[in-house]
Amino acid sequence: MKRKKNKSPQQLYQAARGNLLLMLIFSAVNVAFAAFGVDIYFLFSDYLAYMLALTGRVFLEYSDEGLYLAVGLAFAVLVLVPYLLCWIFSKKRRGWMIAALVLFAVDTGALVVDTLGSDDVLYNLPDLLFHIWVLVYLVLGVKHAQQALAPQPEETPATQPLVESTFYDASLGGQPNTPSLGVPQEEWKYRILVTADWNGRHIEVRRSRGLTELVVDGRVYGREEGVIEREYTISARIDGHDVATVFYPTGRQTIEVDGDHGLMTHPLFYDLA
Questions:
Q1: Does the pLDDT of residue 155 top 70, yes or no?
Q2: Distance from the first to the final alpha carbon of the chain
Q3: Hey, which residues does 224 pair with through a beta bridge?
């Protein structure tokens, strides 16, 4: 029997965004149905937005005042617009996926309270199950967002031979140089922790949101991920030398060549030659 392949962080994150969009579409349809008095309700939906629109419709029928329906629809739209913003901006920002999770968790809580307070608890059970479904995907999206949104290494074409200046991982213990992981990420703001000129090459250590990159001549040769910085070393083999950046528990960031400490802590120029 063929074993099922696990989904990648990118696939799980896109699945979370897909479920968020699907929920938003069904919610908008339900709000429209409630406004026009159509007795149809899709389960894959935001509960509060529907109830606000439905309440406006009920008050309209009892009072014949269109203002009640307008107010109900306005509040329903105010509930749904943040979801739309979350879906749009979560394409590149993890925080928007977290916001979507919080919003839908609040909606699920409202549904649970309403369900427990009703005479027929089983009536809202299917809706509650679909809410849990969406919540699970949103949680997975938040969990894998950092990996899914991290810049992906560039693929080296199979027909393109590696030249001597190509870099290889020094941790392998061999003499070859470390291959490039691609260009540094430019989507998020970053700051340069430390720079150095050595052997005709320009070295930078960049820090962006949860990502530290060792950059040589505009190319990335090592990365360290983590929102909270702990002690780490990013190393590469360059022109036959071990080049590394080290972050110490004291907060000091250095660039080192063959173990020679270049005591660097902030964006200052340092000549390692």
A1: no
A2: 59
A3: 212
Q: Report d(CA 175, CA 152) in Å as an integer.
A: 26
Q: What is the pLDDT of residues 174-207, one digit of tens each?
A: 568 888 888 887 767 788 888 888 888 888 888 8
Q: What is the pTM of this model?
A: 0.56
Residue 191 lies in a domain: yes
Total domains present in the chain: 2
User: 11: which residues sit within 8 A by CB, 6+ positions away?
Assistant: none
What residues contact 256, with CB distance under 8 A and at least 6 apart? 243, 244, 245, 246, 262
For the beta carbon of residue 107, count every other beta carbon within 10 angstroms: 24
Rg over CA atoms, the chain? 27
Among 136, 133, 112, CA closest to 124:
112
Q: How far is it, in rounded angstroms, from Cα 212 to Cα 272? A: 21
Structural domain of residue 133, as residue ranges? 9-149
Place of tokens 């970053």: 190
**Do 195 and 131 share a domain, yes or no?**
no
Kindly state the helix (H) or strand (E) to which residue 192 belongs, with its residue range.
strand 191-198
**3-class DSSP assignment, residue 270:** coil
Sheet holding 232-238, edge to edge: 232-238, 241-247, 253-257, 260-262
Mean pLDDT (the chain) is 82
Q: Which of 100, 95, 101 is closest to 82 using CA atoms?
A: 100
Same domain (yes/no): 138, 179: no
Q: What is the pLDDT of residue 110?
A: 93
Structure confidence at residue 153 (pLDDT):
56
Kindly report which listed range (49-63, 129-143, 215-229) carries the lowest average pLDDT score: 215-229
